[in-house]
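Exercise 7. Given the encoded structure of a 183-residue chain, write a plausible sequence.
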């Protein structure tokens, strides 16, 4: 299994729509960087967020109430100390059958206490990424729509898998909006 380079990522995005929309270079001027890097792709936040409801005392991922989150559409989202919000990528992904993606933190946010948990983009999965954004600091932290939030690394397997995420009809397949935990 090999980590894929910028050349491969560009080819897969431009020829096979693996990432759409696709920024073919790293955009850094005046923004938290996004776009193609040497061995990954820095994704952006859309301006849609889900904030946890104030009434929640226990969160059960197997039984979330319909009003567990409040929707917010904004260019900046303030993440309270100790809180987790949900967000969505601007980019739509189509992961090939012989590839797995791994979403990781960006150091800019990690340095101020904002963590994006590692998330696997399984072989055959497609959709917009639902992104958990966790503020582990003691202060509210701003996150910015249309700017970078995390990086995705792509690993190509030696051969295609027998059963892909699409074959299993995974519960998050082709998600087009922020999708809270499902059972």
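Solution.
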């Amino acid at each position: 299994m090999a980590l894929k380079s910028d050349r491969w990522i560009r080819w897969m995005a431009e020829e096979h729509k693996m990432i759409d929309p696709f920024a073919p270079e790293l955009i850094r001027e005046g923004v938290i960087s996004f776009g193609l890097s040497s061995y990954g792709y820095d994704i952006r936040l859309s301006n849609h967020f889900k904030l946890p409801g104030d009434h929640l005392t226990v969160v059960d991922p197997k039984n979330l109430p319909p009003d567990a989150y409040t929707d917010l559409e904004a260019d900046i989202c303030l993440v309270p100390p100790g809180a987790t919000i949900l967000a969505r990528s601007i980019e739509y992904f189509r992961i090939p059958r012989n590839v797995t993606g791994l979403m990781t933190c960006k150091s800019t946010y990690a340095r101020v206490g904002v963590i994006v948990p590692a998330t696997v983009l399984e072989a055959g999965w497609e959709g917009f990424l639902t992104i958990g954004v966790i503020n582990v600091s003691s202060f509210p932290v701003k996150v910015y729509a249309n700017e970078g939030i995390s990086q995705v690394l792509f690993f190509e397997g030696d051969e295609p898998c027998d059963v892909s995420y699409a074959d299993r009809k995974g519960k998050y397949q082709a998600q087009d909006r922020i999708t809270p935990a499902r059972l």
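Remark. The helical segments are 6-16, 107-110. Students should compare their own answers with the one above.
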